[in-house]
Design brief:
Blueprint: E1 2-6, H1 18-21, H2 26-39, E2 44-48, H3 52-64, E3 69-73, H4 82-91, E4 95-99, E5 121-124, H5 129-143
Parallel strand pairs: 1-2, 1-3, 3-4, 4-5
Length: 144
């Protein structure tokens, strides 16, 4: 099982700054990810929260549930949350950070990620295809 976590404001996909994030809604994104996961013979659970503590609780719970990998778009917590970083490091589950936009081509405060150093990798700027790339990586990691 792979856990997909989307952080704050990603519930607004499709309407929030479409020039940056596109017109795909969160439901559309989750449906696409489920389709990609099925094609790769992966089971996927999708969750979204605007609350840091909820995301941390889900990460902790993932260890108890023997989750094989986490894909996370931490949203704005990328640049602010040491607690989220520590949760990822603490559970020892391979994690991939995904961002729809190219955070390095945006405001300077978005150039630093507290999350990236504790992840297998980071995928930025590929739109929702970044989630597909993360699933492709986990299809290799989980099967080996």
């Amino acid at each position: 099982m792979i856990l997909l976590l989307n952080g704050p404001n990603l519930n607004l996909l499709g309407t929030r700054e479409p020039q940056i994030y596109g017109s795909t809604t969160l439901k559309d994104l989750e449906d696409a990810c489920q389709n990609w996961a099925r094609a790769l013979e992966l089971k996927l659970e999708c969750k979204q929260s605007n609350h840091e503590g909820q995301l941390i609780d889900w990460i902790h719970q993932a260890r108890e549930e023997k989750i094989k990998g986490i894909i996370i778009n931490p949203g704005g917590y990328t640049h602010t949350s040491v607690a989220l970083r520590d949760a990822i490091a603490g559970v020892g589950i391979p994690t991939i950070e995904v961002h729809i936009s190219n955070v390095h081509a945006r405001e300077s405060f978005r150039h630093h990620s507290y999350i990236a150093p504790v992840c297998l990798g980071s995928i930025v700027g590929l739109g929702i295809e970044g989630y597909h790339a993360a699933l492709l990586k986990f299809s290799v990691v989980v099967s080996s």
